[in-house]
Design brief:
The chain has 88 residues and is of the alpha+beta class. The chain is built from 3 helices and 5 strands, in the order ββββααβα.
Length: 88
Amino acid sequence: MMISCGPHGERVSAVVCKHMLEGQPAPAGFVENSSDPSDLQAWCYLCEDKFQLEGDMTDAFRDFNGMTIVCVVCYAEVRTRHTIPASQ
């Protein structure tokens, strides 16, 4: 699906949780939820914990997650900002 992004124009859409868009100063973690490269979906570590607790995409999970549609360029920027490097 295509969306119109203010800064990036007409782009393919992706989905992220609201927590990664709320301007958190520290990385929130980045968990991709689809192995299909054309189906970009991700949420933060708090959403992953809530998903595990709920066991599915329940209404409580959806309310907590606040899924937001963004363009693929915004998605890439969010991934860069919220990916937490693996411990070495």
